[in-house]
């Protein structure tokens, strides 16, 4: 490394500054500000010459983290983005949205705060875009093979870009009016402004990837038609079926799935006119679920001017430090304060929701009780019931799998018991030439896993079409074995 004693000289971990809460809740711009160059270099210089960089195994993409940390410390930004792009198609997305399992695996994290890997990553790509270092990489020749990618989230776009660059003619199908999937309409702008999606799409278009928006595969065009028209099909539709909560009062007006709130809100920020938009202004909001989607609802409700926001989680509050059963270098479950939590609202743990109450068909409150553990089960404790006033409830309880979309009926691809599209060790379904990547086959997961699966599935598709491949395959479709491509 450039500074082998950097981690001894700079012991303090400094992350990106966030805009002041009273300012940022008045708009939808990104919360984070750029870090001062000298501070950033000092943080990158904390990366150790540790011999075995466990950050590699923590990152599903196998990012070359020590290399681009070193190049950032040396102020060699153009070389740094080359190393970063070698393993990650979209570092501007992971640098903003990934929870950074690489940092949990950082060797320095054994006895000091980990290196700010995610922060260095996003600074590299932002500098690269600002300086014109991100250019199209069209193929040198075309193979004559065609591929349809269904779904334009990170998995689908990663697969499409990889396959385009090796010479296949790729068309991406998206049922929405714009490309991006949940990156476009699920992630609020205060976490990632949509410029980060648009300028990457411009690169992909210049490379030759084709986009077909407003096409719902399975109805507007059948999977059979795609299979006949293309040499291979990649299912990358995500895991978009929300987990419901079938308890008394579920049908009251005011109880909504989280995405039914976030998607119209994002469209409104983009300048669209939304009829009957769910709006939190002046209302008491309760969010069920303490994950990222719940935090997105929380930040959105703040910007809508909610009267109050309460987040309920059925389990215990996670610890602030690693628990004994989650030792380094595993990815621990920790109590985190996202930017939305800084902005206000109440977080309540060990809260079991047992019903919704209302008048004249409209929600007025949420009936909860303390959670107790009986024989390993989480149950509401008798005698602890209370009602929290609520005008809106957002169910942010995760997702149960991919939408059926006539996949089984039209191409005989099967689903497993967890609601995911089944696949073999080469990402192929039981129908030859039909592959699946990302959350549609893995289940709800991280954006970094989606990109890794998109890249690996692209390698499998390329090998299927050409007999061999030069594309890297960073991950296998299961944790049991690595597919040899």
Give a description of the structure:
Residues 479-485 have low confidence and may be disordered. This protein has three domains: 5-131, Alpha-helical ferredoxin (Fumarate Reductase Iron-sulfur Protein, Chain B, domain 2, Orthogonal Bundle); 146-240 and 400-466, FAD/NAD(P)-binding domain (3-Layer(bba) Sandwich); 244-397, FAD/NAD(P)-binding domain, CATH 3.50.50.60. With 485 residues, the chain is α/β, with parallel strands linked by helices. Helix 3 crosses helix 5 (65-73) and helix 14 packs across helix 15 (292-304). 32% of the residues lie in helices and 16% in strands. One of its GO terms (molecular function) is metal ion binding. This is Glutamate synthase (NADH) small subunit. Residues 38-69 form the 4Fe-4S ferredoxin-type domain.
Task: Give the structure's gist in a few sentences.
The protein is an alpha/beta fold and 485 residues long.
Keywords:
single chain; about 475 residues; alpha/beta; Fumarate Reductase Iron-sulfur Protein, Chain B, domain 2; FAD/NAD(P)-binding domain; 3 domains; 5-stranded parallel sheet; 19 helices; 16 strands; disordered C terminus; FAD/NAD-bd_sf; oxidoreductase activity, acting on the CH-NH2 group of donors, NAD or NADP as acceptor
């Amino acid at each position: 490394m450039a500074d082998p004693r950097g981690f001894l000289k700079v012991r303090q971990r400094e992350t990106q500054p966030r805009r002041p809460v009273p300012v940022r809740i008045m708009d939808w711009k990104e919360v984070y500000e750029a870090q001062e160059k000298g501070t950033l270099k000092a943080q990158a210089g904390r990366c150790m010459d540790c011999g075995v960089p466990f950050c590699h195994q923590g990152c599903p993409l196998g990012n070359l983290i020590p290399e681009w940390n070193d190049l950032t410390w040396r102020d060699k930004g153009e070389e740094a983005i080359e190393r970063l792009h070698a393993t990650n198609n979209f570092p501007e997305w992971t640098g903003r949205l990934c929870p950074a399992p690489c940092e949990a695996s950082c060797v320095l994290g054994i006895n000091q705060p980990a290196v700010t890997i995610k922060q260095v990553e996003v600074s590299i790509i932002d500098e690269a875009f600002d300086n014109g270092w991100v250019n199209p990489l069209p193929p040198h020749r075309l193979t004559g093979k065609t591929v349809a990618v269904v779904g334009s989230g990170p998995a689908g776009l990663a697969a499409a870009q990889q396959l385009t660059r090796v010479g296949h003619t790729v068309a991406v199908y998206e049922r929405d009016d714009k490309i991006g999937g949940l990156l476009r309409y699920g992630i609020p702008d205060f976490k990632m402004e949509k410029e980060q999606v648009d300028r990457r799409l411009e690169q992909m278009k210049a490379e030759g990837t084709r986009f077909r928006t407003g096409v719902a595969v399975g109805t507007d065009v059948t999977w059979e038609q795609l299979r006949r028209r293309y040499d291979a099909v990649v299912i990358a539709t995500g895991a978009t079926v929300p987990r419901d909560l079938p308890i008394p009062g579920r049908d009251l007006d005011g109880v909504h799935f989280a995405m039914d709130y976030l998607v119209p809100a994002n469209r409104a920020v983009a300048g669209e006119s939304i009829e009957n938009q769910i709006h939190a202004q002046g209302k008491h909001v309760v969010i069920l679920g303490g994950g990222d989607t719940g935090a997105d609802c929380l930040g959105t409700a703040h910007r809508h001017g909610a009267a109050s926001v309460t987040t309920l989680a059925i389990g215990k509050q996670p610890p602030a430090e690693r628990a004994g059963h989650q030792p380094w270098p595993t990815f621990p479950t920790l109590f985190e304060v996202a930017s939305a939590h800084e902005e206000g609202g109440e977080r309540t743990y060990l809260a079991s929701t047992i019903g919704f109450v209302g008048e004249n068909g409209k929600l007025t409150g949420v009936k909860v009780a303390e959670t107790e553990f009986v024989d390993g089960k989480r149950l509401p404790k008798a005698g602890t019931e209370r009602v929290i006033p609520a005008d809106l409830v957002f169910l942010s309880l995760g997702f149960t799998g991919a939408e059926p979309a006539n996949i089984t009926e039209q191409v005989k691809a099967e689903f497993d018991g967890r609601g995911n599209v089944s696949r073999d060790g080469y990402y192929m379904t039981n129908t030859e030439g039909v592959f699946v990547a990302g959350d549609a086959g893995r289940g709800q997961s991280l954006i970094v896993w989606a990109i890794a699966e998109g890249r690996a599935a692209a390698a499998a598709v390329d090998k299927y079409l050409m007999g061999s491949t030069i594309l890297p395959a960073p991950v296998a479709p299961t944790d049991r074995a690595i597919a040899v491509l």
